[in-house]
Amino acid sequence: MDGKLISVQGNKLTIAVDDVFNLEKVIRLSDGKQPSVGLTIDDNRHISRDQQKKIFALIHDLCNYTGDEPKYWENEFKWRVQVTFGVDEFSLSDCSITIGNYMILTILEFLFEENIPFRTKLWDSLESDYTRAIFSINYRKCVICGKPHADLAHYKAVGMGRNRRKIDERKMYFFSLCRECHQEQHRIGINNFMKKYHIKPIKLTDEQLVKYKILSKKRLEELKND
User: Fold this and answer.
1) Which residues, including other chains, have CB under 8 Å from residue 112's CB and lie 6 or more apart?
2) In a 10 Å sphere around its CB, with 0-12 CB exposed, 13-18 middle and 19+ buried, how is residue 190 labelled?
3) 10 Å Cβ neighbour count for 130?
4) Torsion of the alpha carbons at 12, 16, 17 and 20, rounded to the nearest 10
5) For site-directed labelling of 38, which of 1, 59, 197, 198 has its Cα 20 to 30 A away?
6) What is the pLDDT of residues 181-190, one digit of tens each?
């Protein structure tokens, strides 16, 4: 059972467990004796229990979809991490927190790319606002609700009557929104929208602007030469 350390007073610890704790069941399993427990503190150097839970929850969701054995995909994603990030062979029981993040990102990108549904809460599994934004844009998922077929939206509306030829998209910020969330953005206003969902739009590189067909190569060269 996992949890978080709340306070320490002398030799007494207060711990909030993640799941419902059944003391009667614990006493029964310990043959009526005083139960003993062990305490392991995550030191932010080795993979955390929270990371491990997310990794195996994501793999479990994938296997529910494919019918495969979890061990197959665990080994597959380990191999992908080794090749992509240039790390040595590792174990999920004692690897670094960084490699734990690599595993989560690798699994999530595969699920996004293959459009495989998963129940694990998305934003808790991604470690940065930029990663959330770029994953959503790259795979056209809504950054708010995760619905597919989302559109790129400007953080600040271009506005009617403005000459789009004079707009430099390289200076603008973007996020990916489904139609419903995009309509809500316009309905309640961008400031209220950002306060409600705590999301951060991002700037795109020149290559990304061309890749996502925001700018043509010709238009990009025109802007560079202005």
Assistant:
1) 135, 138, 139, 141
2) middle
3) 12
4) 110
5) 59
6) 999 998 999 8
